[in-house]
Design goal:
By secondary structure, the protein is of the alpha/beta class. The chain has a domain of 168 residues: P-loop containing nucleotide triphosphate hydrolases (Rossmann fold), CATH 3.40.50. The protein has eleven helices and ten strands. The strands form two sheets. The protein has a six-stranded mixed beta sheet, sandwiched between helices. A four-stranded antiparallel beta sheet has the order 2-1-4-5, covered by helices on one side. It is globular and about 50 Å long.
């Protein structure tokens, strides 16, 4: 059974003039965004900013009314949604584990659907990478794990098939502070080893600074500013960004992966 992940070419993400309307609301308003291969970009903003809607365009959970969405230069609208979702890792906020399946079986879901040989071995390698050794945790069920452990299994499931892209929608937002810190550190180690292109949604600027190469601040479906946290602190582009920074940095302790 494989114990490590093979090296893969990094995959880019690109949204071109994307506009999404949900009901009567313009959720994404003519946004263009590029995430280069191997990079991690965080979408930050308050509820209703359009972060999750933009994220879900990349796996066709949302279809734009206008614009193009590309994964590694391929227009996602030209590919069957099921096939696309099986090659793009996705971690929802609540994890979405199947409660009647063991940890290993949950983590092996996508490799199994893809017909990859040694799907269980791939799942075990992913769990080991996330700090949940399969020999210890593999036969447990989700209800036998802590919230942080369940979320690590969700990440392991998303990467077990070795996708080039990982989409994460508030993956740590429902966890307590200690569990959140543990899962953040596990993800930071994963990125260092896998060189996987990541787009993730968060309300937390400090989390974004810790985990991402670039931060994109969104408001009302538009991009207010993009760059590093230090750059935004030095020169906030709008009063909204300045206000967001003031609230986020008040009493916060910043850190970066080592």
């Amino acid at each position: 059974m494989p114990a490590t992940f093979e090296e893969r070419d990094a995959v880019s993400l690109h949204a071109e003039d994307v506009r999404c309307v949900l009901g009567d609301v313009v959720a994404v308003d003519d946004i263009s965004l590029r995430v280069d291969g191997g990079r991690c970009t965080a979408l930050v903003g308050e509820s209703g900013a359009g972060k999750t809607t933009l994220l879900r365009c990349f796996n066709r959970m949302v279809t734009p009314e206008k614009g193009r969405v590309l994964v590694n230069g391929r227009d996602v609208s030209h590919e069957p949604a099921v096939a696309l979702r099986r090659r793009v890792g996705y971690v929802p906020q609540q994890g979405g584990l199947l409660p009647h399946w063991t940890v290993v079986r949950n983590a092996a879901l996508v490799p199994g659907l893809l017909g990859q040989p040694e799907s269980e071995g791939a799942a075990r390698a992913a769990l080991d990478l996330l700090g949940l050794p399969a020999d210890e945790y593999g036969d447990r069920f989700p209800h036998e794990l802590s919230g942080g452990q369940r979320q690590r299994v969700a990440v392991a499931r998303a990467i077990a098939a070795r996708p080039g892209v990982l989409l994460m929608d508030e993956p740590f937002g429902a966890l307590d502070a200690i569990s959140r810190s543990e899962v953040q550190e596990a993800y930071a180690r994963l990125r260092a080893e896998l060189h996987i292109t990541t787009l993730f949604v968060t309300h937390d600027l400090i989390e974004a600074d810790y985990l991402a190469d670039e931060i994109v601040v969104m408001r009302a479906g538009r991009i207010e500013q993009r760059g590093t946290l230090d750059g935004m602190v030095a020169a906030p582009a709008t009063p909204y960004v300045a206000s967001l920074l003031d609230r986020a940095l008040a009493g916060a302790q910043r850190r970066k992966p080592t």
